[in-house]
Design goal:
The protein is an alpha/beta fold and 374 residues long. It is 36% helix and 25% strand. It has two domains: 1-115 and 298-374, 3-Layer(aba) Sandwich (Rossmann fold), CATH 3.40.50.300; 125-294, Glutathione S-transferase Yfyf (Class Pi), Chain A, domain 2 (Up-down Bundle), CATH 1.20.1050.90. It has a six-stranded antiparallel β-sheet, with helices on one face. A six-stranded mixed β-sheet has the order 8-12-13-3-14-15, with helices on both faces. It has a three-stranded antiparallel β-sheet with strand order 9-10-11. Strand 10 and strand 11 (269-270) form a beta hairpin. Helix 8 (276-297) runs parallel beside helix 9 (315-328).
Length: 374
């Protein structure tokens, strides 16, 4: 089965005043100079999934400047033998809205009809920077397998914010904490279980694949101590940690303190100690494994967004990546500065050229010929 975005229109979105094009289920190679608006197209596609997209930007920040009139994206999504018309838009900087087949729907409904994964340059430092980025990466992978993960995360964050406010106000009456800690325990245990299940699926997908990219062994660690796994254990840990949390002014135990530890499996070397190229290859491996597992679980491979994917990949690995994308049947949206970066794809892909003039991006479909083929 196929998951593909076959039509996309952008109105007043980032640098695109108006753009509209049709594609098929093959990979989409987007090229043009830096600053032309290539990544803005990938960001638009990322908004066909729940959340704030690959830049984690507010709806207001996505509006074309200086007009700031609001923006609208429309797409035709072929998903599991059905075609859906999806609209997502923001008016006057307000939170984005979603319509599926003409009916208003919550963002979480997008997970019923699509899965979207991405790899962007800011992730290249995933293994060597702070835990927040690794948690977000882990939770995006987890969300791709378990759409309810977002609801558990929102419930946990809301309860924790309220508990942290009590801690900052030095409230000591236990009755104020009871309901909040129970909610955190219920949601937190589900978050932890979903993360563990996601890592298990990734490990299976890596072990079953013949790939040119190195496998990564992943495990969950805690910033301090260990993560209570059951709801009751987490509830008890929150209660016992209350006086320590009062001194710190914040909650010190729970899934928000989880980190993801990675190891280059073949070498036994922590990912943070690998070379820049090896770290990039490990990330690509995880994204491909995520896509393979989703192809089995969801029934179709996800949409895959790869921004400047050729960076830190030599020609051999770049060719291997394209071969694996085509073998998986993934509609991958990829960006690069020139068509030569996609030469190994040839007619297996379709090509969009993005240019910029006076702050406005323009998109042109390119049909390769014998003399102009990338």
């Amino acid at each position: 089965m196929t998951l593909a975005l076959t039509h996309l229109s952008l109105s007043h979105f980032r640098s695109h005043k108006r753009a509209e094009f049709n594609v098929d289920a093959r990979p989409v190679a987007i090229y043009g100079p830096n600053g032309a608006g290539k990544t803005n197209i990938l960001e638009a596609v990322s908004l066909f999934s729940p959340g704030r997209g690959l830049r984690r930007a507010s709806a207001q920040d996505m509006a074309r400047r200086p007009e700031s009139l609001g923006w609208k994206l429309t797409g035709h999504l072929t998903s599991l033998h059905q075609i859906h018309e999806v609209e997502t838009y923001s008016e006057g900087g307000n939170a984005r809205q979603v319509k599926i087949d003409g009916k208003t729907a919550p963002q979480t409904s997008l997970a019923r009809i699509a899965r979207v994964l991405w790899l962007i340059p800011s992730m290249d430092r995933l293994w060597i920077e702070g835990t927040d980025g690794r948690r977000r990466f882990l939770d995006r992978m987890t969300l791709s397998f378990f759409p309810d993960h977002a609801e558990h995360s929102l419930a946990y964050e809301k309860a924790m914010r309220q508990r942290n406010q009590l801690l900052k106000d030095m409230v000591r009456d236990a009755h104020w904490y009871t309901a909040l800690e129970r909610q955190m325990a219920t949601s937190g245990a589900s978050i932890h279980a979903n993360r563990l299940a996601a890592l298990t699926r990734l490990a299976q997908a890596q072990s079953e694949a013949q790939t040119a990219f190195p496998a990564a062994n992943l495990e969950l660690t805690q910033t301090e101590g260990c993560m209570p796994e059951s709801e009751d254990d987490l509830h008890d840990a929150l209660s016992e940690s209350r006086f320590r949390d009062l001194a710190a002014g914040r909650t010190l135990v729970g899934p928000h303190r989880t980190d993801m530890y990675g190891v280059f499996a073949a070498k036994g070397v922590p990912a943070r100690d690998c070379s820049t190229g090896e770290q990039k290859a490990l990330l690509v491996s995880l994204i491909l494994s995520n896509a393979r597992a989703l192809a089995q679980d969801f029934g179709a491979p996800p949409l895959l967004l790869l921004d400047e994917v050729a960076a830190h990949l030599d020609a051999t690995r770049r060719s291997a990546l394209y071969d694996e994308i085509c073998a998986l049947g993934v509609q991958a949206w990829m960006t690069g500065t020139g068509p030569e970066l996609f030469a190994e794809l040839g007619e297996r892909a379709q090509y969009l050229e993005v240019t910029e003039n006076d702050g406005t991006s323009r998109v042109q479909t390119i049909t390769p010929t014998a003399s102009t083929s990338p």
